[in-house]
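Annex B.
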Amino acid sequence: MNLSKKTFLYSAIITTIIVVLMIGYFVLMLPSLYVAYMEEINYNSIKQVQEKFLEEGTYKEISSRNPTATFTLKIPNNENRLLLFNGFGNIEITIDDPILQEAIDKIRYYADNYEELENIDESEEEYFKDVFNYIKELVKIEGLPISIKASSNDNYLDFEEVSYDVDVVDDNTIIFQQDVTDNVNYYTNYIAFSNYKGNIVVTLLPVMTPQLNEIKPIIFQSLPMITATAILIILISTIFFSRKIINPIEKLANHAMFIKGNSNLEISPIEIDGKDEIAKLGEVLNELYEELNKNFKELEEKNKFLKEQNVRQEVFLRASSHQLKTPIAASLLLLESMINEIGKYKDTKEYLPKVKEQLLSIKDIVDSILNLNEDTNGINIDKVSVGELLKNALEYHDINIKEKEISIDINLQDVTINTDRSLIYKVIDNLISNAVNYTKCGGVIKVILDQDSLSIINYGGRISNGLLPHIFEPFVSSSTENRGRGLGLYIVTFYCKLLGLKIEINNIKNAVEAKLYLN
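histidine kinase: predicted structure tokens.
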């Protein structure tokens, strides 16, 4: 689909959806929300009037939705009088008639036992009707200070009940809601009834019931505004979708600028969704850039290989230099002891061959340094006996072990793995060297070899908690007496990474454990 059709389709869809949603909301949902809102306002009004009157006992600070028709009737406990309150004033009525006093007592009874109102029988209803008729007759008796004349119209105030509801606000207050109609208008009568501190308090709030057809004409009159709003939203939406179309073009332009200024980074293909003209242009550009990507990848691979080779050569040199320390130290120890004729070292015929062995070890290390490229060009996998290499390493450090009078506790199984013999020996040799260097004179080193791992434990040593996380970094050492250069474990972890092995150094009880996982 081309851009013009796509833009028209987007605009048509958005226009239809927005207009339908807005008109539907204003015509269907808004009137219902208005009615529900007004009903809640009226209910809260009678509730607040009742609560405030119970609290203050006066209308001085009370306002309601219909202040002229809202009034509260208070029937005091054990008194023959009625108190009527309104925003205009208060009326006190004293009841001397025994029949009316009896009726008030019944009202008090049902106030204390309002649950019986649900099961009130016809006789009780007839009783209250008789009381009401009795009151009508009383007003006809001569001698009253006022004259009341009442008449009725058969066509007026013919109300029909629509609905009735009761809401228990709390243990003291109930609100009755009655909806009635005279077939023209609708009314809601709210009656709050409370039994508060022995007094009966009744509040009446009559209001007009809001109707849906009252607000619909207003909404229809507002349709021009709604239409204008819809058009505004449509314009904004059109701008948005126009940007949605333009953004891929800008993306292509920015990508082209990036490639223009890029000389050494890998270039990723640009992704354009869809099947329009812009997406096709993106595909063509991706094909153009693919060759550039291939060239960058080849260059990166070569640089990475050279970097790895440099790192391996650097580590190899460090490892070899580090490894030279042991035979040099052993040779110096033997020569110094023979020169000074100390103890058993007086027998030069016995110990000169050992000096020669150490010098030959130095020669082998120097030869490997001279043949650096051959030794670092690759990994030669072969079946290797770990126990044999371990014994060779222990024999290699035998002079230092005997000099420090270190006891070696060995527990070896027959373990053979497929690995590079030279590299795994360097790992084992460095671990043994570390254990010997950091074990005090007369200490113990325990070596455990099983099918899964090689553990070398030197007792009496400990690595500080602050140093432990950095122990495999170059030039990090816990040695203060031996002044170690901190390369041993760095070399170990480098070779383990090449061989795919895992090495851990941990403090255990009264010792440090180096554990090499062989699987």
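Residues 110 and 118 are 11 Å apart (CA to CA). Confidence is low (pLDDT under 50) at residues 148-157, 371-376, 480-485. Further annotation is deferred to the next reporting cycle.
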